[in-house]
Amino acid sequence: MQKRKFDLPDMYLELAEGTAEWYMETHFFEEACDLYDAEEIVKQGKKFAGNQIYFIHYPDGSVYKPFEGRENVYYERPVWDKDCFGILSVDFSEGRIDIYTYCPGNAAEILATLPLTSVKDCYNLKVEMSPWTLFAVIITVGFKVFN
């Protein structure tokens, strides 16, 4: 068995959704959190330290980093479609939501930009695949009263 050592931060790699050959992980510069929690940190007047996405191709072990992490910018979990990743980014300082396409080995390109004010909050905000679509998942619980 051949082993390869990567020069990456301590992370837990997982298979990227939609592919059998790409692994990914998000490295947080401080404590790990989800998008909604990052939004809450910023709403409290604090700075969100940021996060950074890494992609590792199997079996050759090539490592890709599409963005440099930045303060108050959150990169959501990417999804794979055909030969590229769709990545949701929220820039709290600029007040905008960006949807990127990233084909490993090339520069990330913005597909769409929306003002952050176009959503109530970032709770369950994510990109889905084929075609990439921005969703805000809303969970409704119904109650039925029995006599």
Please explain how this structure is put together.
The protein has 147 residues and is mainly beta. 6% of the residues lie in helices and 37% in strands. It is built from one helix and eleven strands; from the N terminus they run E-E-H-E-E-E-E-E-E-E-E-E. Strands 5, 6, 7, 8 and 9 form a five-stranded antiparallel β-sheet that branches. The protein is globular and about 45 Å long. The model is unreliable at 137-147 (pLDDT under 50).
* Poorly predicted parts: 137-147
Gyration radius over CA: 17 Å
Tally of individual helices: 1
Task: Please state roughly what percent of the residues sit in beta strands, choosing from under 5%, 5-15%, 15-25%, 25-35%, 35-45% or over 45%.
Answer: 35-45%
Portion of residues in helices?
Answer: under 10%
**How many beta strands in the DSSP annotation?**
11
Please identify the structural class as seen in this structure. Answer: mainly beta
Average of pLDDT: 84
Shape: globular
Largest sheet entry? 5 strands, antiparallel
H/E order of the elements?
A: EEHEEEEEEEEE
End-to-end distance: 66 Å
